[in-house]
Amino acid sequence: MAEAALVAAEYGGTVPRLLAAHGYGPDKSVTAAAVTGGGWVRCSVPGCTYTGAEASVRNHEAKPHKETA
Ligand SMILES: [Zn+2]
User: Fold this and answer.
1) Are 18 and 11 in contact (CB under 8 A)?
2) For residues 12-28, b (16+ Cβ closer than 10 Å) or e, as one string?
3) Contact by Cβ (8 Å): 37, 22
4) Ligand 1 centroid – CA 48 distance (Å)
5) Nearest C-alpha neighbor of 40 from the set 54, 26, 29, 50
6) Is the torsion defined by CA of 58, 64, 65, 67 positive or negative?
7) Distance 5 CA to ligand 1 centre (A)
8) Contact 47/68 with Cβ under 8 angstroms?
9) Model pLDDT for residues 28-58, shown as the tens digit of each residue
10) What is the pTM of this model?
């Protein structure tokens, strides 16, 4: 809840504005930054763009993946 309150107080309640305030946007991916500096990992399945904390990615990888062309 503290995070939500901070977002509301500082960024008008919108995550896009929060991201923009930190310089993130279409040209700077916040997920890429999380991988680089935040300890996030990418799904190891080729073609899959899922990114997240390691435990959640391992969980995700265990699920069936659709074939990607
Ligand atoms: Zn995946």
Assistant:
1) yes
2) eeeeeebbeeeebeeee
3) no
4) 5
5) 54
6) positive
7) 32
8) yes
9) 888 888 878 888 999 999 889 899 999 999 9
10) 0.55
Q: How far is the CA of 66 from the centre of ligand 1 (A)?
A: 9
Rounded to the nearest angstrom, the distance between the alpha carbon of 46 and the centre of ligand 1 is: 8
The CA 63 to ligand 1 mean position distance, Å, reads 8
Sign of the Cα pseudo-torsion (6, 38, 51, 22, in order): positive
Which residue carries 């435990």 as its tokens? 55
Q: How far is the CA of 52 from the centre of ligand 1 (A)?
A: 10
49-53, long-range: CB within 8 Å, 24+ apart, which pairs?
Answer: none
